Amino acid sequence: MKRIDERVNERRTVAQKTISSVNPATGETLAEIPISSPQEVRRTVARARAAFGPWAARSFRERGGIVLRARQYIIDHLDEIVSVIYRETGKPKTEALAADVMPVLDLMTYYARMTEKWLRPERIHLGKYALMGRSSYVAYKPLGVIGIISPWNFPFTIPMGEIVMALMAGNTVVLKPSEYTPLTGLAIGEIFTRAGLPEGALNVVPGDGTTGAALCEAGVNKILFTGSVATGRQVMMAAARHLTPVVLELGGKDPMIVCRDADIDVAASAAVWGAFSNAGQICASVERCYVDEAIAEEFIARVVEKTRQLSQGTPERLDTDIGALTNERQLRIVEEQVREAVARGATVLCGGRRHRQLNGLYFQPTVLIGVDHTFSIMREETFGPVLPIMTFKTEEEAIRLANDTPYGLTASVWTRDIRRGKKLAAQLEAGTVMINECAYTHALPQTPWGGVKQSGIGRTHSRWGLNELVTIEHIHVNRWTGVKDFWWFGYSQQLYHLLVEIAGKLTSPSWLDKLKALPALLRGRRLKKY
Fold first, then answer.
1. pLDDT tens digits for 176-200?
2. pTM confidence score
3. Which residue numbers are catalytic?
4. What are phi and psi of 157, to 5 degrees?
């Protein structure tokens, strides 16, 4: 089978404007990808809309069968798909498999099996109104066309999860992959094509910012965006012009609190993995570490020791722990934040600069102390392999520091006392708080993913994420087909006095009081109605 980048290059015409897919570990241009113009985006959304009715009419079993065939295709072509991911992102091959592909395989099975159960009609208990012949239920219906604008840090697992949920709910999808990882987006489209997904149900529109803006303006029924706060604001403003609902996942500045009773060695290993996995390019990375001053010296020493043991190298080597950053712009942000911290008095315990022996976009895993919340590295999202560490005297101080941020995606607490951990977790402002874990719960399809404050709006994954992709239709039934409701026209003195008589009884929490209202209700049925 030819590589995906080779097939793209064969189809490209000379006249088209393109974006370059570049291997950040080597600087090699992998492919030139045609940019989808605004006109093409509109035509693509129209195709997705035409495909929506037939796709929504399919049963959950039929949709799940296609998702599971796509899953099997991934398994059968694992090396090729992993290769596309690590060559475009610069992440280690092992991480491309473990963090991008394996969570998707789990999620596909989960939603293929669970969606029908979660989206079956659901009865609403009406209490006293059931005695009046009333019943209600809700039906979950697909929204229509879902626009997905996906990021470059996890270009496979993030959009794939959203695509699977959208398709299983009965929607069709238009995916705009990051301009840094277009080949991965095209690979996703090919996977579903090979699995037999009907034409138009999933559409990929590679391109740059103009392509994403066009998708926001093209009349989709909902937009799922993952990326920066600045771009998220632009997406939300564009969506507001059409009253298009959005789900926004906008990153974080995630804190790690290490209590004095924590297992120091385990917590140090977690800090290193949580801060440096995917070269720190995870919205749930440990970007701020607060450690109790009673154990700080030992904890920091172990973090530095473990960091120095990491192997940084080319992504295809299976012993590489830390790969390259995905793009030059992000590398410069990391460099600037570290430079400012050092200029203001921070101490670099290891790392602190680009890797001198590697030619790609590599930044050494870096541990900093001597920082505070006036430093940009403690305030702004770094999205790179940097771990700044501060100490605290009391748990109240730790909570105050952890919450002192405009972000609120994830946080973690490290303690042997689970009760203490839960108490601290309840005080943290985050969409997900982990106790003795960090960074990884996006890989759990059963759990909701999303943040508070500037970390975003809405949720993906879990039943709550699935609910973002449907509309709720309420069906209400009155089985007393031959009876006029007593509150209809015409109004009269008798009706008013009847309402006064039953107001307190009918709305009482006591069923005995409700029964006392029954004689008045029966009289109300005899009042003259138009």
1. 999 999 999 999 999 999 999 999 9
2. 0.95
3. 249, 283
4. -70, -35
